[in-house]
Design brief:
By secondary structure, this protein is mainly β. It has strands at 3-7, 10-12, 18-25, 32-39, 46-51, 58-60, 68-73, 78-83, 92-100, 114-115, 119-123.
Length: 125
């Protein structure tokens, strides 16, 4: 079974932090770009952050830049999204996605080979 599984979501107060994990099974993640997307009901899914297969380069959507940090540990076949200074507008279901190399490392949903089921993040007081 080839899949990605997100975890780490939950309820957090504004200004708080949360770390999401994206674990791959059935395939090795080290030849894939990994991106995080998020979606609010009634809205289109939007890109949040991406990281190269080696972890040497990252990109962030402007609204999360400076607050979120994407990383990966290929020895654990896992990618992460550290979310700091969370805001209510960060509330969404967060998905990770993997794109096999060669990869554009863009927020283009149709280019990704695997998607997780999502983990819900709620930022509220």
């Amino acid at each position: 079974q080839l899949q990605l599984v997100e975890s780490g979501g939950g309820l957090v107060q504004p200004g708080g932090s949360l770390r999401l994990s994206c674990a791959a099974s059935g395939f090795t993640l080290d030849n894939y770009v990994v991106c995080w997307f998020r979606q609010v009901p009634g809205k289109e899914r939007e890109g949040v952050s991406c990281i190269t297969h080696k972890g040497d380069r990252t990109k962030y959507e402007d609204s999360v830049k400076g607050r979120f940090i994407i990383s990966r540990d290929n020895t654990k076949n896992t990618a992460y999204l550290q979310m700091n200074s969370l805001k209510p507008e960060d509330t969404a279901v967060y998905y990770c996605a993997a794109q096999r190399l060669p990869a554009l490392m863009e927020f283009l949903e149709e280019e990704y080979d695997y998607w997780g089921q999502g983990t819900r993040v709620t930022v509220s007081s």
